[in-house]
Amino acid sequence: MLNLNAIKNISNLRITNGFFASSRRDNKKQLVLFAYYAPLEEDLNQRFHRLRHFLVDNYDPIIIWALDKKGFNFKDSFCIKEKLNDSESKISLKTRIISLPSYVFNLLLNPLWLVYIFLTHEHRKVDICIACFPIMGVACAILKKLGKIKYFVYEDIDFFPGFYRNKLVKFLLSCFERIAIANSNKVICVSEELAGFRRKTFKNKNIIVIPNGVDYATFSMVQRERQAFPPTIVYAGCLGWFSGLDYVLLALALLKNKIPDITLILLGRDDWLRHFSRVSKKIIIEKNLQPFIKYYGVIPYRSLPNYLAKATLGLAINADSELRKYSCPLKIFEYAAAGLPVIGTDIGEIKKLIAKYEFGELVEYTPIKIADKVYSMLNDKQNLQKYSENAKKFAAQFDWNSLFDQEMEEIFRRN
């Protein structure tokens, strides 16, 4: 049973989210915990999914804490389910699946619930803990204060309050982020913009930038398979209110008369507000865009390169928001690794990367400007070829394995 006296000073505790593993180099005695706020069964392309694969493939057997995809069951939540192996891994691992309550309840009580689960099921001390989400970060900071975690790294993968419009949710997530970062030993940020923002608040914090990347070997396989398809643009990613997809659809309405055989491929899921179903689909119907769009929804990660191989241009059109200002979008690395030139809005990390590596062009966030940019690039074969070659060279520098090697070196350095 949980010793309630152990957390009586809970207001003074600090939080993390992380992983357990033994190092493959000089850190074989280091016990590491990896926990992330998503169901284990999901095989998406997010950074924490790739980090999970990296740890499993490169470290000794590890324990992974994941969420129960079936949702919260009060009776079952007092024990943890165990999965003996991961079908995609060569290494046997034990995974502990945690049942957590609904989202609003999550924000208020899940950090404490995670602490309770940990204290009642794990008796070892963690040498290193890496946190990926504010809720998990808070829970692990508490465990650090209780002496269960020695060294805490917060993996700052997004500006999470930016995902939401509800003021209470934004406030709570902002508080959780501040608690996690303030109580961490080191912070890994995905972009220079986000790192700069954090440094303004946490002036003495050790903050390091390790950007997002791509499974280059998987995506580069389709570079030579590209065929002469009709003019095709692709948007891959969450189809939420922050995606900029609505302006892409309005741009497509302007383009369909100039390029009658143009096609837009959409890959990704709707957001929790069902923006694509409620708003974007109305635009598609009102503008008669159905014949010009191929919507595939969520596809397996390893199938994504095959869809990108059918495209001529990759779109990274983002609404100007806090979320996108600090983000490092995965899609630009995936487009580039597949040899796709990219059109991106001049916001945050996209602006810096395209300007530096010249694998595409920037555009203002308006339907007319987007339509004009797509039209001009599709009709400039010479520049398309140049951008494609630059894209391949750019993406090769951001392979996940190389980036995570750098990250683990920074973590084990502990200074």
- Beta-strand portion reads 15-25%
Q: What is the CATH-assigned architecture of the largest domain?
A: 3-Layer(aba) Sandwich
> Count the helices. How many?
15
CATH homologous superfamily label of the largest domain: Glycogen Phosphorylase B
Shape type = globular
Largest sheet: 8 strands, mixed
The total beta strand count reads 14
How would you summarize the topology of this molecule?
Layout: E1 32-39, H1 47-58, E2 63-67, E3 81-83, E4 94-98, H2 103-121, E5 126-131, H3 134-145, E6 149-156, H4 167-182, E7 186-189, H5 192-201, E8 207-209, H6 216-220, E9 232-236, H7 245-258, E10 263-267, H8 275-286, E11 293-297, H9 304-308, E12 313-316, H10 322-325, H11 330-337, E13 342-345, H12 348-357, E14 360-363, H13 367-378, H14 381-396, H15 400-413
Parallel strand pairs: 1-2, 1-5, 2-4, 5-6, 6-7, 7-8, 9-10, 9-12, 10-11, 12-13, 13-14
Antiparallel strand pairs: 3-4
Helix pairs in contact: 2-3, 3-4, 7-8, 7-13, 11-14
List descriptors.
single chain, 415 residues, alpha/beta, Rossmann fold, 2 domains, 8-stranded mixed β-sheet, 6-stranded parallel β-sheet, 15 helices, 14 strands, 41% helix, globular, disordered N terminus
